[in-house]
Design goal:
Elements (H helix, E strand, L loop, with lengths): L3 E6 L3 E8 L2 E9 L6 H14 L8 E5 L2 E2 L4 E3 L10 E4 H9 L3 E5 H12 L7 E7 L3 E7 L2 E2 L30 H5 L1 H8 L4 H7 L2 H25 L3 E5 L8 H9 L10 E3 L6 H5 L6
Parallel strand pairs: 1-4, 4-8, 9-12, 12-13
Antiparallel strand pairs: 1-2, 2-3, 5-6, 6-7, 9-10, 10-11
Helix pairs in contact: 5-6, 5-7, 7-8
Length: 283
Amino acid sequence: MITGFSVDLGGTKTAAARIENGRVLQREQIPTEGLAGLDRQIAEMSVLLERLGYRNGERLGVAVAGRVDAEGRWQAVNADTLPGIGGEPLLQWLRETFGQAVTVINDAAAATSAEAVLGAGQGAEHFAYLTVSTGVGGGVVLNGKLVQSRNGLAGHVGFISSPFGQNVCGSGRFGTVESVASGRAIAKAAGAADARTAFVSRTEKGRAAIDRSIAAVARLCADLTAIFGLDRIALGGSVGLADGYLSGVSARLEHEPLLFRVPVVQATLGHDSALLGALLPKE
């Protein structure tokens, strides 16, 4: 079973956990310093790990938002998220700081692996996980193996074009799923402080923004099913797990031809998915 320490650094929060036999025994969390560079981000990880009783050399899995290539270099893909990260040698710095028993992976890829092995993807040979939160990310598992690429871009499904997108995305692409479906996009379209406010207030503009997000994610589910022949998709993230969001996606999929109506279920590991996945063996 999974035992060790892990860190999940996302666009909004950074969490760390002590895990034993696949269970999170202790968890610490702080807001992510979005503009910080690599040295500051690692310093923040150190603070959290110290609170958990981590000692250098112990097993540590680190999951981060953005692209992590085969050499462990870390690059933000969306310029609006972690703009201080620009191809830094993350794995090298982590091992110099914490010891050699460190691995790194993209956060959505880590969550995908965890859901496939421990959560909502169990029993599905062709499975995808989507996280709709500050941004939109995910991953695909085919025949039990996570789809990865040397440049670390595989799985960044939020940057796929969407017929509902009408703005330039932080990735530089026009009309992506993330540009219309993410929490950041919902808040902007709704004129709200954040996506949570848009869900709570339910103004006319807020409802319209949420409905567009749901439509874009439903179309993405059908598109991914057309490409990969998926058996099941798990939906997670703060937006994806909001009341009514999953049922809305499922209802929109009913308008697709039968062949593309993939079952969409709730991710079962919640906010711990990337923390658990960061410690799973890498292929």
